[in-house]
Amino acid sequence: MLAINSVNTYRIPQKFEYYKPRDLREALELLNSIEDAKIVAGGTDLVVDLKYRRVVPKALIDVSELSELRFIRTDGNYIEIGSAVTMQELVESEIVKKSLPLLAEVVESIGSWQIRNLATIGGNICNASPAADSVPPLLTYDAELELASLNGPRTVSIEKFFTGPKKTVLERGEILRSIKIPLSQQKFGWSYVKIGRTSFDLAKVSVAVLLRAEDGIVSEVRIALGSVAPTPVRARTTEKSITGMSLERAAVRASELIVSEIAPIDDVRSTAWYRSRVAKILVRDAIWKAYERFLQVGDKNEDQV
Amino acid sequence: MRDFFKWVTKMKIKFKLNGVVTEVEVEPHETLLNVLRDKLKVKSVKYGCGVGECGSCTVLLNGKPVTSCLVLAAKVDGYEVVTPDYIAQTHVGKIIIDAMLEEGAIQCGYCTPGFLTTIYAAITKGIRNIEDVKRALIGNICRCTGYINVLKAVKKILSETK
Fold first, then answer.
1. Chain A stretch 35-54, residues whose beta carbon is closer than 8 A to a beta carbon of chain B
2. What whole-number distance in Å separates Cα of residue A119 and Cα of residue A101?
3. Is the minimum CB–CB distance between B113 and chain A shorter than 8 Å?
4. For the segment A163-210, what is each residue's pLDDT rounded down to a tens digit?
5. E-assigned strand segments in chain B
6. For chain A, what is the domain count?
7. Domain annotation for chain B: domains and CATH numbers
8. Are both A178 and A80 inside the same structural domain?
């Protein structure tokens, strides 16, 4: 890892071709015909990587203006978000605010205003950072990813999408077209807890929780964590074992169980030791916070995931 | 197949710079910051960190603040770009600058064009609450003196704009 001032970041020190296709089909054809082409949307990760020469592509294909990737819509069963929708557009979307409050809250905390105006949700997902902020909420929402290619579309659950740091199941010639989030009839309480150097820096540990309870007993819970494993993870074992427990017991038990579901590492932002310890506490806090929210939203009659 | 696309390694882009239609030849590896400073001589846009952390290079792209060091110049074809020197001439821009001067919200001045641009974007977007302006300014870093005087200036600006 290069320190911030050890390279001149004024220029991108390499040459490549640039294409701005007019529709998704052109983008896919280009992607097929050029070896080593990279998709670029907001560029907030990729341009930095280009400046540091972490990636050396032959060509960039800019999909940030494709109308087929720039929509937020709902049909009552699903909310579908185009992959080139920017983070700021998500923050300001009434649909997202109303039906996906967890996602709205998380996205608002991503980067700065300047970055959110460029960065896209699809870029955040496809860049496949273990610390990607938008992913833990999408994991708890059981989001599905629609991939487009010249051979036709396919759908992958977001839980199966990541295979390692910066690695995904995306095959050559495939583009993430949209994110589909199933709407549930049930109301959940939600919470997102993150530890980072500053609020807009990448997380050292982040936890997203969706939770429903009846008479103080957990009836359904979904927990996802970022920055504590090679990919963002869903804590299925913990979820299963704390369902049916009282909130007090569930919070304690989750904090004990969570360490078996994560595999943190030492890196520039934190250490494995610190991450395990803080993950335990954050999971506990996140469960309580989600429960408080659940009690608040329980009375209101809004459609919300 | 590839001849089909007009832009490959050298391209002419056409965009509105501070309201004036501007044409310039760019290469794919050039950023908007490079083109503004080196080719169009807009020196009010500053190079700080170069990786989108500091906000010194903030410009308005179709009215939205972005870090120009991360925007590929080739993308900007057809967009509208507004830079700090233009904002400084506007009515709201003058109010912001006066307030920053009066409150001492400047030390070395290098981050100031970025602050000016982001504050201008927030005010013209109708953000009226000091906490919301604070959140909008998260991406602008001052390494000399801090943010207290900037916030004092913002309070003044909020009271002086409608």
1. 40, 42-44, 47-48, 50-51
2. 20
3. no
4. 999 999 999 999 999 999 999 888 899 999 988 876 667 788 999 999
5. 11-17, 20-26, 58-61, 64-67, 80-82
6. 3
7. 2-85 (3.10.20.30), 88-160 (1.10.150.120)
8. yes
